[in-house]
Amino acid sequence: MTLYPANDYSHYHAHIYFDAATLTQATALVEQAGESFPVKVGRIHQKLVGPHPHWSCQLAFNRTIYDTLIPWLEAHRNGLTVLVHGLTDNAYKDHTEHLFWLGESQQLDLSAFHRHDS
């Protein structure tokens, strides 16, 4: 059984990463997630957005489904990389300290965030 980080935050984002070759796969994954779980499915961005180094689609969800959604994403991502992070009042820390990866970790572009220690 895979161990995932503790469910420490009230809200989360999961960013599914894809490219032109995996667009159909990623679209099917986020649509299935939206049908199977109470998640808010964001836009399917076929461009770089925010700190993300690949095209992406965001799933927004709360802690009540974390323990079922995260293993489901792991089982259904079929090689796609997924960034999962908690949501706090500090976007920099959310994308550096409050995150974990399903699949290979990626280098984020953190230049848009104001780094502060609060």
Automatic annotation (TrEMBL):
Record field: transmembrane: none
InterPro entries: DOPA-like_sf, DOPA_dioxygen
Source organism superkingdom: Bacteria
Pfam families in the cross-refs: DOPA_dioxygen
SUPFAM superfamilies (alphabetical): DOPA-like
PANTHER family listed in its UniProt record: AFR070WP
Protein name: DOPA 4,5-dioxygenase family protein
